[in-house]
Specification:
With 153 residues, this protein is mostly beta strands. It has a domain at 48-149: Lamin Tail domain (Immunoglobulin-like, Sandwich). It is 0% helix and 41% strand. It has strands at 10-11, 17-21, 28-31, 48-54, 60-66, 72-73, 78-81, 86-89, 95-96, 101-106, 117-121, 130-136, 142-149. The chain has a 4-stranded mixed sheet with strand order 4-5-10-11, with no helix packed on it. The chain has a 4-stranded antiparallel sheet with strand order 8-7-12-13, with no helix packed on it. The radius of gyration is 29 Å and the shape is elongated. The N and C termini lie far apart (71 Å).
């Protein structure tokens, strides 16, 4: 009857074809289908933005701002000048607080006043005809880009 408890199903050992047996149903041939499970890691919020790329003059710089709710350690992060290419590795111990900005300077007039102004090199980095900068996290994932002139797609 409809309200009576049913006897649990008994399954045969795993195989490509399994016979399911129950006391209240007709035996049925069943197939087992195995599908791969793909687990995608959660997206990491992109709270750091390149807010300015000054590529002309004696003091070139890339300005980065933290728009997130938490401070961000810059350990292992990089700035890349795609035309060249040249790479700047942030020194360990630099942390960008919520709402704070920092600049990474290059050129003969470059400023060096850590932690808000960091020196990349006293040589020129940015190509005046066009370039692209990438901000990469400690996993080498591109978190933001900025371009100008011939460096833009």
């Amino acid at each position: 009857m409809a309200n009576e408890p049913k006897t649990p199903l008994r399954l045969s050992p795993p195989s490509n074809k399994s016979l399911i047996v129950s006391t209240d149903v007709t035996p049925t041939l069943a197939y087992t289908l195995f599908l791969p499970i793909v687990i995608k890691p959660p997206e990491v919020p992109n709270n750091l933005k390149i807010t300015n790329l000054s590529y002309s003059g004696a003091d070139e710089y890339v300005e980065i701002q933290n728009n997130g709710p938490e401070s961000q350690s810059m350990d292992g992060w990089q700035i890349v000048s795609v035309v060249g290419p040249q790479t700047y590795d942030f020194p360990n111990g630099i942390t960008l607080g919520t709402g704070q900005t920092l600049r990474v300077h290059s050129g003969p007039g470059a400023t060096d006043n850590p932690p808000s102004d960091l020196l990349w090199t006293t040589g020129y980095i940015w190509n005046n005809d066009g370039d692209k900068t990438e901000l990469r996290d400690s996993q080498s994932t591109v978190r933001d880009t900025s371009c100008y002139g011939n460096g833009c797609p």
